[in-house]
Each structure stands twice: as C-alpha cells, then as structure tokens.
Design brief:
This protein is α/β, with parallel strands linked by helices. It contains 18 helices and 21 strands. The mean pLDDT is 97. Bound molecules: beta-L-fructofuranose.
Length: 472
Amino acid sequence: MNAYAAVDLGASSGRVVVGRLGAGRFDLSTVHRFANEPVRASGTLHWDVLSLWAGVLEGLRVAGPVHSVGIDSWAVDYGLLDSRGALLGNPVHYRDGRTADVWRATAERLGEKRLYATTGLQQLPFNTLYQLAAAAGSPQLAAAAHMLLIPDLIAYWLTGEIGAEETNASTTQLYDVRARGWATDLIADAGLSPDLFPPLRRPGDQIGAVRDVDLPYPTSVVAVGSHDTASAVVGVPADGTDFAYISCGTWSLVGVELDAPVLTEASRLANFTNEGGVDGTIRYLRNVMGLWLLQECLRSWGATDLDALLRAAAAAPAFAAVVDADDPVFLAPGGMAERLAAECRRTGQPAPASRAAVVRCIMDSLALAHRRAVRAAVALSGRDVRVVHLVGGGARNALLCQLTADACGLPVLAGPVEATAVGNVLVQARAAGAVRGDLASLRKLVRETHELRRYEPRVDGGAWDEVDGRVG
Ligand code: LFR
C-alpha cells in the first residue's frame, strides 16, 4: 500500500496525516499535531510561520517513507519573497484589523459589481486583494518579487519551486473565476505588479522533489486542493449531486458544488462566493463564523470539560437568546463571551447567565446561520438539496449536528471529521495512479471506508421560523 502525507494547517493547529490506500481500505493516521498560535507584535497579528514550518518538518520526519506530500491550509494569507527567495517578514493573520478601513474604499474604487463579475468572490475584509491594498506603499511590498499563499510557501521551502495552486488562488479576489487565471486587468488597476503572482498549478500537478531538507527518505510534493475547504469538499462522502455541505471547523463553509459560477446580482448581494474546487468545480458557498465563537470562549475560560459543557448546553433551554453569528463584530479574537452577551442585550434578549447558556446560544445561532446559508444556496443556485453533509471537527459535535438538521429541515450526515486530510490524500493517490476516476468515484471510496452518523430533522412546530424572524 502506498502512503501519502497530508499536511493540513488549520487556524488553531496543524497536523500531518498519513493516508494509506489499497484493496478496499483507506486508513488515515495523524502522526503529528502541533499548535498554531498567532503572535501579536507592534500591534499586528502574525502567523508564527517558522514554528508551523518546524511542525511540518517534524511531522514529515515521523511520517516515515511516503510516496508524496500534499499541503493545504486556510486561504487568503500570504508571504512575500524578495528576488532571491527570502521571506520578507512574517505573514499577517487574516483576523488582523489592518484591512478594516481599507477594504470598502478599495472595493468602491475598483467597483463592487466588476469585482464580483470577474472574481465571483464574497466580500470579506481580509481577502488578499484588501490585504495587499493595506500594504500599498510599504517598503516590504516594494521589495517583493513573489506573493506565495501559505501552502505554496511551504511547498516552496520543501522543493524550491514557485507557483500558485488554483483553488487557493481563487480566494484572493485577484483571480478570474471564468477564465481560470489571474485577473490581470484587475491586478493592474489595483496598482499591483503582475509579476508578483506566480504561474498557476492545478490539483494533481507535480510540484517537485523535496530537496535541501533533512528528511530520512526521498519524496516529492504534489499539488492538492491547497485551500483546506477545497480538500474538505473532495472528502464529502456524497452520493449524487443533490447535497449541500458544511465544512465545519473554525469556520463553517456552507454551500453546494456547481459546474459553473453563479454571478447574478442576487448572489452578489447575498455575499455568496464562487471559489475554485478540485477538477474545475465551483464551491458556491458562504462563510459562517463557525466554531470560532466556541473556541474563543474556551480559550478565555481555560481548562474546561467540553463534553460536559456540551451536555449541559443540550439540556439548557432552546432559543433563550440567538444572535447573528455572521456579524463582523465576532471576527476579531478576544472577549468573545462578553461580545455575545452585548449582542444579546443590544437585540433585547437576556444575556446568557451561565457557560452552558453561552454555549447553547452559540449552537442555536450557528444552526440558524447554517439554515440560512443552505436555503440561500438552494435559492440562488437552483440546486435541489436533499441532504446536508457536515464534515470536519464539527461532525463530532452531536448537539450542533442535530440542531443543524432541525434548523435546515433536512437530514444531516456527519463525517468524516478529517475530511480535509481525506481529500488531500485522495488527490495525491489519484495523481500517483493508485485510484482512478472523478470526484464521484473518490467520494464513493470515502463512503465505503468511513462511518457516518445520520441526524434526522425533528418536527419543531415552527420554532425555527420564529427564531429566523427574530434575528435580523
Ligand atoms: C477555512 C478557511 C475558509 C477561509 C478562511 C480564511 O479554514 O480556509 O475557507 O475563508 O479559512 O482563510
């Protein structure tokens, strides 16, 4: 059986997962997990990219011989290289506030309708376009020869090869979603040098042999869906096309898979995004704030028995207070429980009076946001949806899965938890010729080798309609 290493960098931790495929078997084991702790310096929130690099190397050392390595991470963030390939400063975290005052003016200058028509991307204040706009005029940007998104930067350090994998490039708001290439006119009008943007590569492309790195075996790097959400969507164990997915971790990415982008005015106003998927598909989705709300509360509460807390939240009264989880007020780190309480009070609801009540408020609010996003995806794309696949860490959260089924009025199939690593490994295995076929065939393999949990929607007598009407 061939082994493949999936390097998966998430907003709170990174992992190296070894996947083995052969004769009806698909085993995954996490061989190394390491923290990803952002660091604030001189008022700017950075990723500690060298510590991530060290974690990747350690993981690959203990992974043992692997046929290839695939790398995925969160989207939009980048490192700048000078003309000799040196990293010009630490990559900045997308939750840093430096784009807050810049993004709207940039969008207005370039034209919001034009931006959507070209890139199909949702407006998020941290899109790469706006981060580069915030960096305009800086000596760092002036000295930059290449902009590398995070997985491309790790691939560069492993192989010496410079390139941009297209699923992640599609999240920059500088990529033409229909032409499937860099949006050169937009890049010029944004005042950026076209030379910054490396040649594109597609999932399955060979990037190069690992070299000048101390690994105890030879291997190479293969492009995968390097945007973590693109890999997660490959790992959705759907049968057919009538499904919605929720890739549920720090974010919930909620949407459908399409063959072509939806670029209508209604779609733009609903802030739906058309991100590039593996095999030229479109990930038509919306970002929901996700388990970030819970993670931030847990971070401030210190050591907590999460299972006990979720049980208490399940027993707490439903809908006591529900907020718009997608309110940008929740984007930045810190003071999350206080911000939730303030939002409840502002909307005339009682602030949660216990930790269990806070968690219940988060779960009800996320389920509501899932419902709205699934319904909007259906209405805007015309796709028939009969089941919701919930993958990623959130698939472990039975309360959230059940509430999501209830809120959507659809069955939820939960799992795999490691969908991102699954998708990463499958694209490598296909590039190696060890598995064959289209996404449907890859998904069949996931169904045959992973246990899923099914949650049926409970009849609620209109309760979710009431909640939906309550939250603006
Ligand atoms: C999820 C994710 C989302 C992206 C966000 C920020 O991990 O990649 O898809 O919008 O992180 O990069």
